[in-house]
Amino acid sequence: MKGILYLNDAEIATLDETRISVFKTYDEDPIRVSYSTRRLNTGKTFVELERHRVMRLNLEDGREADVIYQHACLDAEGKLVGVLRVLGDFRDGQS
Question: Whole-model pTM above 0.70?
Answer without folding.
Answer: yes
